[in-house]
Amino acid sequence: MPRLVSCHRCAILQRIPDVLPKTPMIPARLEWTTGESYTYTDDDGLAIMVPAYDPILEDFVIKHDHGVDERVIVNGQMIGVWAVDQKTWDAMDVVTKVKAELRDQTQKHYEEVDDYRDAALRCYNEHGNPDITTGCRDYKDDSKRLGPATYDDGDGHTITIPPPYRQYQCYLCPFQQAAIQVELRQRRGMYNDKKNLAQRSKSLKRAAR
To answer: How far apart are CA 69 and CA 36, in angstroms?
Structure first.
């Protein structure tokens, strides 16, 4: 599901990828050290469910908190989040619509940016446009992780994001798309020649190192 996030102080609208498949969902709930808590609910009074692990959104918040109180951030006064289903995204220009709404609300012109994908493309070019045959020397290396692997929840508890739910810059790279295509073709039996299958299998393992 495509997503957009905005920083009202920076006046930017950033595209970010959705969380990874099968990420567990939990009620959107805030707790403060004073013992107070608040659960976000929908129009029917049901708890709004959010991903238990969202490292890219966490990364964006860390970069754009500007030292303000957390409650200002989570209440949408500093950062806004829009999740759009794929059908709507394909049917209309969501970015232009959101930018127009923000301009009407704030009297500011919001710049559209895609920093995460741009960084992935720069890395891809710096690596000489690697492919499945050559492999990528730092594919899913910790230096390419987006967002923290662990973070403090504000109440003195350390939250560790399990490896399956961590996000990497590599997921936005053309190299990743090539690797996925080879794997899908293998599953469909398109590489039924044993020699070719073995060669592509070795290439995928080399890419994952």
So the answer is: 16
Residue 9 lies in a domain: no
Structural domains in the chain (count): 1
User: Positive or negative CA dihedral for 13, 56, 44, 69?
Assistant: negative
The values of phi and psi at residue 128, to 5°, are 80, 30
Domain membership of residue 52 (yes or no) is no
Identify the domain containing residue 135 by its residue range. Answer: 128-209
- Write the secondary structure of 49-102 as one string of H (helix), E (strand) and C (coil): EEECCCHHHHHHHHHCCCCCCHHHHHCCCCEEEEECCHHHHHHCCHHHHHHHHH
| pLDDT, tens only, 88-120 | 888 889 999 999 999 999 999 999 999 999 999
50-87 tens-digit pLDDT: 899 999 988 998 888 888 776 666 666 788 899 888 88
